Fold this protein.
Amino acid sequence: MNAHTPQQKVVVVGAGIVGLATAFRIAGQGHKVVCIDDGKPGVSSDAALGYIAPPSITSVPPDVVLFGAQSYQRFLQFLGDLETVTGVRPYVAANGYIHVATTDPQVEEIDTICQSWDTAGLNYTRMSGDAARVREPMLSSHVQAAVILRDAMNVNPQELRELLRAALEGLGAEVRTGETVQSLDVIGGTCTGVLVESGRIDADWVVVSAGSWSNAVLGGLRITNLIPTKGQVVVLRSKGGLVLQYPVSTSDELDIMPRPGGQLLIGTSNEDAGFDTTTTAHILSGILNRALAVVPGIGEYEFVRTYSGLRPCTANRRPVIGPHPACPNVIVATGHCQNGVLMAPLTADSVVDLVHGRSDGAAPIAMMHPALP
Ligand SMILES: Cc1cc2nc3c(=O)[nH]c(=O)nc-3n(C[C@H](O)[C@H](O)[C@H](O)COP(=O)(O)OP(=O)(O)OC[C@H]3O[C@@H](n4cnc5c(N)ncnc54)[C@H](O)[C@@H]3O)c2cc1C
């Protein structure tokens, strides 16, 4: 809060990583925050593997690479501020990740990936398959080439959500779980609050960060191109022996994330299946087969469980962060697709700027328009 911005009543709809991070930053400015969440099945933040690495140009447009890189730069500060409020140091591993290539086209694609990392000013090391196996002895002999993005971290998104909830309570914000926001109360282009089952909550600002369900909350203000994109994950556990040192990725949608304690999360798919969250043998067997081809030793790991999550994606792979043109005190913060954990800190700061009427600093990259293609 500052002299020009008196305390505002802000309702944040959705307590995924984006809503919680945003509520945390707004509450940290002294505003009165209520964050509401109904715990839908398929919450993306509970499915996320936890890569904190700027995306490459092979998956998103160049401005989104830069947005990701800027959010990456803020991530450690964000975790530090979380620790200051909660007294708990969030888990973070900062040893980078290995992107591996097992086919000739994938080897060529490494050039493109490195170019976009150059543009974003990131540090990486290219290496042969043999050099990669020295770094990560679990990699298979099929790996022809690799690149380690040294500027990459990983976190535990589920733990971060818990810490953010605790931090919000520490800052005096209200976190309401198990409650659905049924609609926004909009009169003449201004939103005066939200409607929940138990009544109405007044607001000067409403932030809609309800992930894939944001259009249902927006109602008549819905944005046109939000597509829930299912990602399935298999969880294994090491029974001793070799443990993966680095997270490993390939360009055919394979991500293998080691967690402390020997767990390994292996994903993932990109399915346009509406709000369906079932996990399927066909997809999971494909994920496991691709993982075994890259890291054969995990064939001995114990099976733990499978799960899925719904990424909030836009057709143009750009997040939607900005005031609604038809109702400017409704701020939409969604559409982060496969990078929402990474992009949560910069998204949150961008929303604070909007509440404070600032256009400098972390300007939103995609001011929303209802007719966005
Ligand atoms: C398998 C998988 C792996 C991923 N890995 C990574 C990764 O490594 N790194 C990365 O950066 N990103 C990753 N992502 C993407 C990331 O998970 C998402 O971009 C991010 O979690 C989106 O967060 P969100 O808060 O916008 O949405 P969500 O996490 O989906 O949260 C939305 C919340 O809104 C609530 N809600 C919805 N409607 C209402 C309502 N009417 N009233 C109240 N509450 C409501 C829901 O219950 C939910 O809790 C991954 C995603 C998947 C599926």
The first strand starts at residue 9 and ends at 13. The CA atoms of residues 69 and 113 lie 14 Å apart.
